[in-house]
Every structure is written in structure tokens, then in C-alpha cells.
């Protein structure tokens, strides 16, 4: 059923490729049942029936197609990595969450974009990225991502790896939760577990409880505020409390980035190149045989730079 929904929602070439790959990998081990009637009808003792021959032919064709689709997705992944390197001067924010939590609605609200958003499962299968301006000096990119679901099949997670890597490469994750859903805490845990799978559990995260306008029991609102410190309760659809969310994002950005200075020998070109890869270099000043770097990096990359320096 999930695969059928994904097939209906897929619009772009990347999404269609990912869905087709997931469908074929699901279908491959289940081919035998589809052809048992032919094997029973024609199979003889010590011979291969036409049914078995057809299965082998179909399996070979499916494996060939799977191989081709995986190559296409590798190309997409390579393109994403190239794009990611070009975004190192930006603060990267991903909106993640359980399917139908309101991610695309918030994305449209913050970026003035026109991404398809509807009250249905997996309305978004592609990641979309836009720039946004808040009251900070930082350049900011926000990405809308595919929704998660409980026990998402392994082959489906693998197929959407290139899309979900937007979350992995982010500096900050806005974790959207549908507060009006009776099992919202289960959904929250599912997303946290999925983020761990993608090595994103250590990222700066803002938990955003959405659809507060649909919550009649106000004690639920008090509960989440007490149990999830730093969370923000909003309605993306109605625009409720969005200013508080933006303020929270700005505060996380300020706390997440470290400005540093470093003096290197003019011959230390390799380390200089690594700093350019890991940080936003704000100024470079040459003095005789040394170079003074001023740069800004998130705390994770700042620690990586410290380790590089310690090896000198």
C-alpha cells in the first residue's frame, strides 16, 4: 500500500526513479507465486516448465533494471554532494517529521515558495531547497523533505537515501510533529529513530508541535511544553506563533556557530584547503611567511578543525 501511495505522489524524475527501484526490489523475491500456475500446468519430471523459465527471464530483466536505477541514483547522489560543497557558506536547515505533519506548509510559509502541500500521506517525495532571510547575518537554506512512517521498509529507506541525505547534511533540523494526532508521541519516536539511522541524532534540533489550532484539550499543549523543553507550538496553516519559531531558529544559529582565528605557515596549503572545505572563511590576511585566517564554522566542523591542528 505504501508503494502504491508513493507511486501516485511521485512527480519528478528523481522521485519516480526511487519509487520504481523500491517497487522492483519488493517484487523480485515475490515473483514465484505469480507464475506457479504455469509451472504446475506444464512442468514435467526432470524438466523445466515454461513457468520456471519465465520466472528466470523476469528476474534477469528486473535485476538489470534495478542495477540501472541504482546507477542513476548514484549520479543523483554525486550531484547532491557537489551541490552540498557549494553550500558550505550557508546555514542548512531541514524540515523533517512524520508524514502529514505539515512540513511543506511550514516550508511554504517560511520561504514564500509554492511547494505542493495537502492533507494526505506522502504529499512530498522530493526534497526542495530555498533561501530564506531572518534577522541574522547568516545565509540560510531550508529544505523540505519526504515524510517518515513507522516501520518504513528497508528497501524504501535505501531508495530514498539521496533525498534523506539532505537531513544528514543539515546544521539544524526542524522536527515537525502533528500535535492533533492521537499518537503524536509515537510518531515523534519513529522520527528520532530514523534520524539515528542517518547519523543525524546529534544535530541541533528544534521540536515543533504543529496544528495547535486543531487541539481542543489545552492540557496537551501544557504537557508538551513541560516535557520537551525548547519546543515551539505552532499552526503553520493559520500562521500561529511563527514569530516564536523564527526567534528559536535564530537563537540556535547564534549558539551553533563559532568564530575563530588561526595563523598558519604559508606552506601549509593542505590545512588551509581543509579549513575552506569545513568552514566559511571570512577573511585572509598575509603577513610575511604566515597567513591569518578568520573563519566561522558550526561546532561539529570546529572540532574537526581543532583535531587537524592538533596533528601538526
How does this structure look, described?
The chain is of the alpha/beta class and 312 residues long. Helices cover 49% and strands 20% of the residues. It has 3 domains: 80 residues, no CATH class; 169 residues, Rossmann fold (3-Layer(aba) Sandwich), CATH 3.40.50; 54 residues. The chain has 13 helices and 9 strands. The chain has a 6-stranded mixed β-sheet, sandwiched between helices. Strands 7-9-8 form a 3-stranded antiparallel β-sheet. Helix 2 packs antiparallel against helix 5. The N and C termini lie far apart (56 Å).
Name some characteristics of this structure.
9 strands, three-stranded antiparallel sheet, Rossmann fold, 312 residues, 13 helices, alpha/beta
Structure in a nutshell:
The protein is an alpha/beta fold and 312 residues long. Helix content is 49%, strand content 20%. It folds into 3 domains: 2-81, no CATH class; 87-255, P-loop containing nucleotide triphosphate hydrolases (Rossmann fold, 3-Layer(aba) Sandwich); 257-310.
Amino acid at each position: 500500500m505504501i508503494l502504491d501511495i508513493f507511486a501516485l505522489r511521485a512527480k519528478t524524475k528523481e522521485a519516480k526513479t526511487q519509487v520504481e527501484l523500491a517497487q522492483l526490489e519488493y517484487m523480485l523475491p515475490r515473483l514465484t507465486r505469480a507464475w506457479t500456475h504455469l509451472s504446475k500446468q506444464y512442468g514435467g519430471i526432470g524438466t523445466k516448465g515454461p513457468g520456471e523459465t519465465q520466472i528466470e527471464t523476469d528476474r534477469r530483466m528486473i535485476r538489470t533494471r534495478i542495477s540501472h536505477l541504482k546507477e542513476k541514483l548514484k549520479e543523483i547522489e554525486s550531484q547532491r554532494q557537489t551541490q552540498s560543497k557549494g553550500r558550505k557558506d550557508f546555514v542548512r536547515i531541514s524540515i523533517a517529521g512524520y508524514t502529514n505533519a505539515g512540513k511543506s506548509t511550514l516550508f511554504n510559509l517560511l520561504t514564500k515558495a509554492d511547494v505542493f502541500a495537502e492533507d494526505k500521506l506522502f504529499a512530498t517525495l522530493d526534497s526542495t531547497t530555498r533561501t530564506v532571510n531572518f534577522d541574522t547575518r547568516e545565509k540560510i537554506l531550508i529544505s523540505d523533505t519526504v515524510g517518515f512512517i513507522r516501520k518504513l521498509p528497508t528497501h524504501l529507506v535505501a531508495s530514498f537515501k539521496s533525498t534523506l541525505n539532505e537531513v544528514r547534511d543539515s546544521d539544524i533540523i526542524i522536527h515537525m510533529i502533528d500535535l492533533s494526532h492521537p499518537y503524536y508521541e509515537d510518531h515523534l519516536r519513529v522520527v528520532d529513530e530514523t534520524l539515528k539511522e542517518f547519523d543525524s541524532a546529534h544535530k541541533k534540533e528544534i521540536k515543533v508541535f504543529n496544528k495547535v489550532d486543531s487541539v481542543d484539550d489545552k492540557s496537551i499543549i501544557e504537557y508538551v511544553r513541560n516535557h520537551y523543553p525548547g519546543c515551539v507550538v505552532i499552526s503553520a496553516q493559520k500562521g500561529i506563533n511563527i514569530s516564536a519559531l523564527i526567534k528559536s531558529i535564530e537563537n540556535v544559529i547564534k549558539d551553533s556557530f563559532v568564530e575563530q582565528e588561526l595563523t598558519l605557515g604559508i606552506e601549509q596549503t593542505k590545512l588551509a584547503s581543509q579549513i575552506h572545505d569545513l568552514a566559511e572563511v571570512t577573511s585572509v590576511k598575509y603577513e610575511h611567511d604566515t597567513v591569518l585566517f578568520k573563519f566561522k564554522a558550526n561546532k561539529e566542523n570546529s572540532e574537526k578543525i581543532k583535531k587537524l591542528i592538533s596533528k601538526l
